[in-house]
Design brief:
By secondary structure, the chain is an alpha/beta fold. The protein contains 13 helices and 15 strands. α4 runs parallel beside α5. Bound molecules: flavin mononucleotide. Flavin mononucleotide binds next to β5 and β11.
Amino acid sequence: MKRVDDFRLRFGKQELVPIMIGGMGVDISTAELALEAARLGGVGHISDAMLPTVSDRRYDTNFVKEKLKLYTYNLDNSDKSAVKFDLGQVAESTRLHVSRTMEAKRGSGMIFINCMEKLTMNAPRETLRVRLHEALSAGVDGITLSAGLHLGSFTLMEDHPRFRDAKLGIIVSSVRALQLFLRKNAKLNRFPDFIVVEGPLAGGHLGFGLDDWMKFDLRTIVNEVHQYLRNEKLDIPVIPAGGIFTGSDATSFLEEGAAAVQVATRFTVTDECGLPKNVMQEYFKAGENDIEVNTTSPTGYPMRMLKNSPSIGSGIRPGCESYGYLLDANGHCAYIDAYNREVAAHPDAKKIEVMDKTCLCTHMRNFKCWTCGHYTYRLKDTTRQLKDGSFQILTAEHVFHDYQFSTDNRIALPGE
Ligand SMILES: Cc1cc2nc3c(=O)[nH]c(=O)nc-3n(C[C@H](O)[C@H](O)[C@H](O)COP(=O)(O)O)c2cc1C
């Protein structure tokens, strides 16, 4: 019987364990988690979401304070179009996070950075260009383009000296999205080095509609992508993601021609993951009915999360002067409208409730939006319950090895 370790992900001459830990913003997929994946011979991701605030927390910079100081005058203004990022600070925070992580890398694996197009930052092109260029300059092994179609992202990197040597990939949820990306970039004479096909059971934002995500199935989409690539005579590694919970799940995709798998949920309850330990216990405790896909994210994409996420219903003042990562090209975010509507409807209320949208920047930054994969309710079966009723936090190495070596749909408990 085959297991994941019988397969290898190949990038040119380099061979890796075909396990990629997916990017999880904001610093849920930490450098420590990515470094473990690389040490164990696989691929880890850091995330480039909100790096100025991540850098403040990790490297003692003051980017958020400095931005807030500049825009304090605007705090009570519902028009946030004046709130811009200093591109130099975006560059510096990216450089810091990527270079510190890459300097610490050990082992034969790789570290990629997950870069979401939906982080439009009130100047989509300019900020995205800086994020991509700085990550490449700081020596990241690869970039995974996510949360958006990224039709212009390769062009934004074309003039970077590492454009053809870094591993550049894209996450898609349909053949159509892949076709669009390939067509748009045909003239660059540079194909993606890998394609992550993310199905409807993943964590974070979903590339499916709120009402129809359950009608889609990862295996079907992966097969369609394989077929399309065969028709086009393209040999690009395909990496399925979303709901691959056991080593056997992973092996079945590898046997059908996948180059690797991308996984995340099982690593959300490991020491190296960025979630606070009490939040990990919420993930362990969750039952199937405690998880929902909703549209509270102002990005417009549905998002999966625990129903008891503190972000849901929270009516905090929009945090754009400090953060503002989701402001679109016109300085607009759907949460601002929802918040203003509730303030106008309840002028005397001390505390406002906003049910339909959430201030995602603030809540993701504070680990108050508990986004998770569909199978989060199975996490309790991956560990032991302790005497006090809490669940034992795992190590990334344990979970990685369980994916790598297990067979028969077995999940090894810690210590096994
Ligand atoms: C807590 C959490 C946060 C995530 N955040 C991001 C993100 O910021 N960007 C992204 O492209 N994908 C994100 N994802 C998706 C994962 O990278 C991955 O593709 C997917 O969750 C794999 O499915 P699995 O969780 O069932 O293993 C996130 C997933 C989780 C569980």
